[in-house]
Design goal:
Layout: E1 2-7, E2 12-19, E3 22-30, H1 32-36, H2 43-65, E4 74-80, H3 84-101, E5 105-109, H4 110-116, E6 120-121, E7 126-127, E8 135-140, E9 145-152, E10 155-161, H5 167-177, H6 184-192, H7 217-229, H8 237-266, E11 270-274, H9 281-294, E12 297-300, H10 303-306, H11 310-324
Parallel strand pairs: 1-4, 4-5, 8-11, 11-12
Antiparallel strand pairs: 1-2, 2-3, 6-7, 8-9, 9-10
Helix pairs in contact: 2-3, 4-11, 5-6, 5-7, 5-8, 6-8, 8-9
Length: 341
């Protein structure tokens, strides 16, 4: 099977070509520089960039894979969740291509694709579902933080999610409070590598709560008041590094603690993590340390597949088509607020 996949849920335009579980190409056009001027993603601008980028990115993906559209057996695109106007571009482009080629079209849930991205590995990347094991999966990004029990391939249930701010948002917003450049999360992570995580104490919301839910708004507020009460602290480089390290440690402690606790409670042998925040260096280290201590296998999505990309959309679409023959009609529309059940 040869499948084209499209991802346009936020500010990355991505097109991938998948063949029999292998990623033949995975092109991504990022809009970070454009949105940096505004300190965040502007939906209208993102949509215009998707329109501008789609054809060049698609043509490049075909060239990388060495095929033409006539070789496709199916088309897939992100159906939701995401920015409505951004989703429309990729989803309707996919529908149009499938209609012209008279091929099956699948709408894919963005978070579900992240859920299975840790099982894409190698160079070139290939689906590694032969080693699949039941797991507790942490999906953590700028807009979402959730724990999912993956009982079997394509069978999962949501355990908990953020009740307010996502972890990635907390990273970005606290970085903005410190005057760090956009996107703030990766910059905070970089500076934290040079700091002392024990220098300052910040709250770890819901860490002892029995639920699998997350909350990071209180931590963000605590950082705001801390910086208000210590206005000169960030004038010294080492103090800035220490604040970054202490904020990062608080967020990571919550994420790791709740993930490991859920995995042990459900007696699964494996933990996975995906989403943009999974690129965080401390999160990767602490998850590995905690899993080794608890006797759990850890699967982390590669950095290239942590952020939004069409490869994970295509791999999941292929698995669904092969396993169940799930198709959506050409009349189906996007679902911006689609929840992961």
């Amino acid at each position: 099977m040869t499948l084209l996949a499209i991802e346009s849920s936020c500010d990355e335009t991505s097109v991938a070509i998948i063949r029999d579980g292998s990623v033949l190409s995975n092109r991504v056009a990022s809009q970070i520089k454009m949105h940096a001027e505004y300190g965040g993603v502007v939906p209208e601008l993102a949509s215009r960039e998707h329109l501008k980028n789609f054809l060049p990115i698609a043509n490049a993906a075909f060239a990388d894979a060495g095929i033409t559209a006539s070789s496709l057996d199916a088309v897939a695109a992100t159906r939701g969740p995401g920015l409505p106007s951004a989703l429309l571009i990729g989803y309707h482009a996919g529908q149009a291509l499938a209609f012209v080629l008279e091929k099956p079209f699948l709408g894919i849930h963005h978070h579900e694709a992240h859920l299975y991205s840790p099982w894409i590995a190698g160079d070139p990347p290939r689906a590694d579902f032969d080693s699949f094991r039941p797991s507790v999966s942490l999906i953590v990004s700028g807009g979402h933080t959730m724990l999912v029990h993956v009982e079997a391939e394509l069978k999962h249930r949501l355990l908990g999610s953020t009740v307010d701010d996502a972890a990635g948002e907390c990273f970005d917003k606290t970085a903005k409070l410190m005057g760090l450049p956009y996107p703030g999360g990766p910059e905070l992570d970089r500076l934290a590598e040079r700091g002392d995580a024990n220098a300052y104490s910040f709250p770890t919301p819901l860490i002892h709560d029995k639920s699998d839910d997350f909350s990071f708004s209180g931590l963000k507020t605590a950082v705001r008041y801390f910086l208000r009460d210590h206005p000169r602290l960030l004038d010294r480089d080492q103090s800035l590094f220490d604040v970054c390290a202490s904020i990062r440690a608080a967020i990571v402690k919550v994420l790791v603690s709740k993930t490991i606790r859920a995995a042990l409670r459900l007696r699964v042998p494996c933990v996975t993590a995906s989403g943009g925040v999974t690129c965080n260096l401390e999160l990767r280290r602490e998850l590995l340390r905690a899993c080794e201590s608890a006797g759990l296998t850890l699967r982390l999505a590669s950095n290239a597949l942590c952020t939004d990309n069409a490869a994970m959309i295509g791999i999941l679409a292929e698995r669904k088509l092969l396993a169940r023959g799930i198709l959506t009609s050409y009349d189906d529309d996007i679902v911006p607020g689609w929840s992961l059940g």
